[in-house]
Amino acid sequence: LKLALLLGLGADENGSGMFLWCTLPEGADDKRFCEKLLRLSGILLTPGSIYGNNGRGCVRISLCRPLDEIRDAIERIKNINKGKICLLH
C-alpha cells in the first residue's frame, strides 16, 4: 500500500491478495505511466488496460516479490519523487 501511496495512486488496502490494484488520477494513461516508471526506476507494473476496458486507468502491483525487493522499489520511487519528476504526465 505504501508503494501505491508514494506513486500517488488510490488503493483499497482490504482489496489486495497477490496483487494490489491501484487507480491512477482521472485522465492518466496507464500504459504511459508504467512505461515511464520502468524507464526511470526499473520497476515494472502492469497496465490495467491489457485486461480490457475495466482495467483502463489502473495499474497492477505484484506482491509476489520478496519483502526486501518491495522495500527497494519504495526507495527507488522516493528518489524519483525527490527529483520532482511527475510520472503522470
Blueprint (SSEs and pairs):
Elements: H1 2-6, E1 10-11, E2 19-23, H2 30-41, E3 46-47, E4 58-62, H3 67-82
Antiparallel strand pairs: 1-2, 2-4, 3-4
How many H/I helical runs?
A: 3
Strand order of the largest sheet: 1-2-4-3
Residue-averaged pLDDT, rounded? 83
Q: Strand-and-helix sequence, N→C? A: HEEHEEH
Q: What structural category characterises the helix and strand content?
A: alpha+beta
Task: Let me know the largest β-sheet.
Answer: 4 strands, antiparallel
**Radius of gyration (Å):** 12 Å
Number of strands: 4
Distance between the termini: 22 Å
Question: How much helicity do the residues have?
Answer: 25-40%
Quaternary organization: single chain
Which percent range describes the beta-strand content?
A: 15-25%
In words, what does this structure look like?
The protein has 89 residues and is of the alpha+beta class. Helices cover 37% and strands 16% of the residues. The protein has three helices and four strands. It has helices at residues 2-6, 30-41, 67-82, and strands spanning 10-11, 19-23, 46-47, 58-62. Strands 1-2-4-3 form a four-stranded antiparallel β-sheet, covered by helices on one side. Strand 1 and strand 2 form a beta hairpin. The longest helix has 16 residues, at 67-82. The protein starts with a helix and ends in a 7-residue tail after the last helix. The mean pLDDT is 83.
